[in-house]
Amino acid sequence: MIKIERTYPAPGSLAIEAKKVSGKYDKPDVIKQLREDGHDKCYICEMKNLQDPVVEHLLPHKDGKYPARKFDWNNLFFACGHCNGVKNQQKYDEGIVDCCNQDPEELINFKLINQDIDVRAKDNTNEKAVLTAILVEEVFNLKNTGMRVYKSEMRLQELTKEMNKLYDNLEELKKNPDSKVVLRKLRAILRRESAFAAFKRNYIRDNKNRFPQLMIYIA
């Protein structure tokens, strides 16, 4: 999960649909803007090329119990069906970190260690950061149904592939520290727009003494 800059004003369809009895909050203009603002990836797991995208409510509207939340532009995010399903648990009802208003990278450490996800809040007294860390861990690890076994493992595999791209290019950088080609590749890999960016960027922060020249890319 990385910081997202939300575009304003809100898509025009939201105000129109909110007046209808069975209004929709996922009209094409909403989807288009959410995808662009969220770098075309799930805001929770950060996977790209989603096969099952949904419009996710940061605070649930509970089938219309909270109608204001249903069409609130600030409450809508682009997500994958897997993360949306995992987040649909009562413990997340009071909300997780709003990554449009707070930078998750400042609140949470995102790590992949020996094929295991280790996501933890930097401050254990920050309840939303703690809850968000639990959610991110669950979307990579929750295996209480056959489909979730598959989807969780698939996300872990994709994350591992992306991290290996980072590791490979860091090895190249050590061999050729002045290579502009390698630096350009690393700059792209470390952009917020890239898949699983929070994990990659966290790795560089943890190894800033080894790769000080890359800190400018994650500022």
Brief rundown of the structure:
With 219 residues, the chain is mainly α. Helix content is 44%, strand content 10%. The relative contact order is 0.12.
Task: Count every beta strand, where a strand is a DSSP E run of 2 or more residues.
Answer: 4
Shape: globular
Count of runs of 4 or more consecutive helical residues: 9
Helix content: 40-55%
**pLDDT average, as an integer?**
95
Spell the H/E element sequence: HHEHEHHEEHHHH
- Which stretches are low in confidence, meaning pLDDT under 50 for 5 or more residues running? none
Radius of gyration: 18 Å
Widest β-sheet, arrangement of strands: 1-2
Strand content: 5-15%
Biggest sheet details = 2 strands, antiparallel
Detailed description of the structure:
By secondary structure, the protein is mainly alpha-helical. It is 44% helix and 10% strand. The strands form two sheets. The protein has a two-stranded antiparallel sheet with strand order 1-2. A two-stranded antiparallel ribbon has the order 3-4. Strand 3 and strand 4 form a beta hairpin. The radius of gyration is 18 Å and the shape is globular.
